[in-house]
UniProtKB/TrEMBL annotation:
<keyword id="KW-0808">Transferase</keyword>
<protein>
    <submittedName>
        <fullName>1-acyl-sn-glycerol-3-phosphate acyltransferase</fullName>
        <ecNumber>2.3.1.51</ecNumber>
    </submittedName>
</protein>
<dbReference type="InterPro" id="IPR002123">
    <property type="entry name" value="Plipid/glycerol_acylTrfase"/>
</dbReference>
<feature type="domain" description="Phospholipid/glycerol acyltransferase">
    <location>
        <begin position="57"/>
        <end position="176"/>
    </location>
</feature>
<dbReference type="GO" id="GO:0003841">
    <property type="term" value="F:1-acylglycerol-3-phosphate O-acyltransferase activity"/>
</dbReference>
<dbReference type="GO" id="GO:0005886">
    <property type="term" value="C:plasma membrane"/>
</dbReference>
<keyword id="KW-0012">Acyltransferase</keyword>
<dbReference type="Pfam" id="PF01553">
    <property type="entry name" value="Acyltransferase"/>
</dbReference>
<dbReference type="GO" id="GO:0006654">
    <property type="term" value="P:phosphatidic acid biosynthetic process"/>
</dbReference>
Length: 259
């Protein structure tokens, strides 16, 4: 593995933040899966020394592939928590149990995806994690980029940062869309990926979380930092999921503030 790490960054991720009662799945993912992935993909990991080792922190990343949620936890110098679809945790039989154990070991928590109350519940869950001093990972774009461009960010990440005072560490991913393109069932073995951690952002100067202007300006600062790390072409618009019903189509015609 090549990186720009200083000597104190050479410690394994699990050495930085002890985790209690994580069980065999966590041991397996950290001690076996992670080293194997590093051998196969030879990831270039940059800027790990920027990541605070203790206290709440938000990793805000671009989103290119399903494996982004594996690349960040496996590269960060501390345990990272993120929300994942509830279906990964409630599947039946042995396959469901393996999926549940694996995602739990990676630091994932189940959440029902959607708008309205589901979105508010997700924000509440992430706020509780931050207040407990944990590190969480979020994708401000909301969903994966299908064309490789960087889309405008929703304001949920900024809301959490302003609400909790947690610093935001921007993350730029590259090559994950080649390692596992959208629609692929399994990762490819040869593409090389890069994970770049930027300097922590203190967004408090933008104002309180209750201010829409503060949330928007803070979000734009986050996306500018991600863009500098990822080098992607800017889309200049939101990455909208195709509308499935008339209400969703109306919302896309008249965009509202994204949280």
């Amino acid at each position: 593995m090549t990186s720009d790490e200083t000597p104190d960054d050479s410690a394994r991720p699990e050495d930085a933040t002890p985790v209690k009662n994580v069980g065999f799945a966590y041991f397996f993912s950290r001690r076996i899966v992670a080293p194997l992935a590093r051998v196969v993909y030879r990831p270039r990991i940059e800027g790990r020394h920027h990541v605070p080792r203790q206290g709440p922190v938000i990793f805000a990343s671009n989103h290119l592939s399903f494996i982004d949620s594996f690349a960040i936890p496996m590269s960060a110098p501390r345990q990272v928590h993120f929300l994942a679809k509830a279906s990964y945790f409630d599947g039946p039989g042995l396959r469901g149990r393996i999926s549940r154990e694996f995602f739990t070991a990676l630091g994932a928590s189940p959440v029902e995806r959607g708008a309205g109350q589901a979105a508010l519940d997700a924000l509440d869950a992430q706020e509780r994690m931050l207040k407990a001093g944990k590190a969480i990972a979020l994708y401000p774009e909301g969903t994966r980029s299908l064309d490789g461009r960087l889309y405008k960010g929703r304001t949920g990440v900024a809301f959490l940062a302003l609400q909790t005072g947690a610093p935001v560490v921007p993350v730029g991913l590259a090559g994950t869309n080649e390692a596992m393109p959208v629609g692929a069932k399994f990762p490819r073995l040869h593409p090389r990926i890069a994970v770049r951690f930027g300097e922590p952002l203190d967004l408090s100067h933008h104002g309180p979380a209750t201010s829409g202007k503060a949330r928007r300006l803070a979000t734009d600062e986050i996306m500018a930092a991600i863009h500098e790390l990822s080098g992607q072409e800017l889309a200049g618009t939101y990455n909208e999921v195709p509308a499935h019903n008339p209400i969703e189509r109306i919302r896309q015609v008249f965009p509202h503030e994204r949280r």
